[in-house]
Design brief:
Gamma-B Crystallin, domain 1; binds calcium ion; mainly beta; 3-stranded antiparallel sheet; 4-stranded antiparallel sheet
Length: about 110
Protein backbone atom coordinates (compact mmCIF):
# COMPACT_ATOMS: atom_id res chain seq x y z
CA UNK A 1 0.00 0.00 0.00
CA UNK A 2 2.75 2.45 0.90
CA UNK A 3 4.62 1.58 -2.28
CA UNK A 4 1.56 2.34 -4.40
CA UNK A 5 1.20 5.77 -2.82
CA UNK A 6 4.85 6.59 -3.47
CA UNK A 7 4.55 5.66 -7.14
CA UNK A 8 1.51 7.84 -7.65
CA UNK A 9 3.03 10.90 -5.98
CA UNK A 10 6.55 10.98 -7.37
CA UNK A 11 5.84 11.83 -11.04
CA UNK A 12 3.63 14.78 -10.07
CA UNK A 13 6.44 16.78 -8.44
CA UNK A 14 5.69 20.43 -9.21
CA UNK A 15 9.28 21.44 -9.75
CA UNK A 16 9.81 19.03 -12.64
CA UNK A 17 6.87 20.15 -14.77
CA UNK A 18 7.31 23.37 -16.69
CA UNK A 19 4.78 26.14 -17.23
CA UNK A 20 2.34 25.03 -14.57
CA UNK A 21 -0.09 27.19 -12.63
CA UNK A 22 -1.19 29.32 -15.55
CA UNK A 23 -4.59 29.38 -17.21
CA UNK A 24 -6.28 31.95 -19.43
CA UNK A 25 -5.95 35.70 -18.83
CA UNK A 26 -3.20 35.40 -16.25
CA UNK A 27 0.29 36.71 -15.61
CA UNK A 28 2.45 33.84 -14.33
CA UNK A 29 5.91 34.36 -12.89
CA UNK A 30 8.49 31.64 -12.29
CA UNK A 31 11.62 31.53 -10.17
CA UNK A 32 13.37 29.15 -12.57
CA UNK A 33 14.08 29.13 -16.29
CA UNK A 34 11.53 27.75 -18.77
CA UNK A 35 8.56 27.97 -16.43
CA UNK A 36 10.00 25.99 -13.53
CA UNK A 37 9.43 26.77 -9.84
CA UNK A 38 6.21 28.72 -10.04
CA UNK A 39 6.41 31.95 -8.05
CA UNK A 40 3.04 33.70 -8.31
CA UNK A 41 0.07 34.12 -10.65
CA UNK A 42 -2.06 37.22 -11.14
CA UNK A 43 -5.46 36.44 -12.67
CA UNK A 44 -7.63 38.83 -14.66
CA UNK A 45 -5.23 41.79 -14.47
CA UNK A 46 -6.55 45.33 -14.95
CA UNK A 47 -5.33 47.32 -17.97
CA UNK A 48 -2.43 49.67 -17.26
CA UNK A 49 -2.45 48.87 -13.55
CA UNK A 50 0.98 48.34 -12.03
CA UNK A 51 1.19 45.18 -9.92
CA UNK A 52 4.00 45.82 -7.44
CA UNK A 53 4.83 42.22 -6.56
CA UNK A 54 8.01 43.33 -4.81
CA UNK A 55 5.75 44.48 -1.99
CA UNK A 56 4.44 40.91 -1.71
CA UNK A 57 7.90 39.42 -1.29
CA UNK A 58 8.37 38.28 -4.89
CA UNK A 59 10.82 40.98 -5.98
CA UNK A 60 14.17 40.12 -7.58
CA UNK A 61 13.21 36.49 -8.24
CA UNK A 62 11.52 36.34 -11.64
CA UNK A 63 13.42 34.31 -14.24
CA UNK A 64 10.65 33.29 -16.64
CA UNK A 65 7.20 34.57 -17.50
CA UNK A 66 4.08 33.25 -19.20
CA UNK A 67 1.63 35.86 -20.42
CA UNK A 68 -1.78 34.27 -21.11
CA UNK A 69 -3.53 37.65 -21.31
CA UNK A 70 -4.48 39.02 -24.72
CA UNK A 71 -2.24 42.09 -24.25
CA UNK A 72 1.47 42.85 -23.95
CA UNK A 73 3.07 43.05 -20.53
CA UNK A 74 5.65 45.47 -19.23
CA UNK A 75 8.08 44.22 -16.61
CA UNK A 76 9.71 46.75 -14.30
CA UNK A 77 12.63 46.95 -11.90
CA UNK A 78 12.43 49.28 -8.90
CA UNK A 79 15.34 51.71 -8.71
CA UNK A 80 15.49 52.61 -5.04
CA UNK A 81 18.10 55.35 -5.47
CA UNK A 82 15.82 57.47 -7.67
CA UNK A 83 12.51 55.98 -6.47
CA UNK A 84 11.28 55.04 -9.95
CA UNK A 85 10.31 51.92 -11.83
CA UNK A 86 12.45 51.20 -14.87
CA UNK A 87 11.06 49.23 -17.83
CA UNK A 88 13.25 46.16 -18.32
CA UNK A 89 11.24 43.86 -20.61
CA UNK A 90 8.20 43.82 -22.86
CA UNK A 91 6.38 40.48 -23.17
CA UNK A 92 3.94 39.94 -26.04
CA UNK A 93 0.45 38.49 -25.70
CA UNK A 94 0.57 34.72 -25.23
CA UNK A 95 4.37 34.62 -24.93
CA UNK A 96 6.31 32.20 -22.70
CA UNK A 97 9.86 33.36 -22.15
CA UNK A 98 12.96 32.99 -20.02
CA UNK A 99 14.39 36.42 -19.28
CA UNK A 100 17.75 37.54 -20.62
CA UNK A 101 20.53 37.22 -18.00
CA UNK A 102 20.85 41.02 -17.86
CA UNK A 103 17.30 41.32 -16.50
CA UNK A 104 17.13 38.04 -14.61
CA UNK A 105 16.13 38.25 -10.92
CA UNK A 106 15.59 42.00 -10.83
CA UNK A 107 11.89 42.49 -11.71
CA UNK A 108 9.62 43.97 -9.04
CA UNK A 109 6.45 44.92 -10.89
CA UNK A 110 4.38 44.07 -13.96
CA UNK A 111 1.69 45.86 -15.91
CA UNK A 112 -0.67 44.72 -18.66
CA UNK A 113 -0.60 47.35 -21.40
CA UNK A 114 -3.93 47.95 -23.13
CA1 LIG B 1 14.58 44.78 -8.40
Amino acid sequence: MIALIDISVTPASATTENWEWCQGNEICLYDGANGTNHLVTYADPTCNHLINFGLSGYGDRTTSVWNTTGHPLRLYNWLANIKEFSLIQGIGAGVQMTLNPTVDNIADAVEMAC
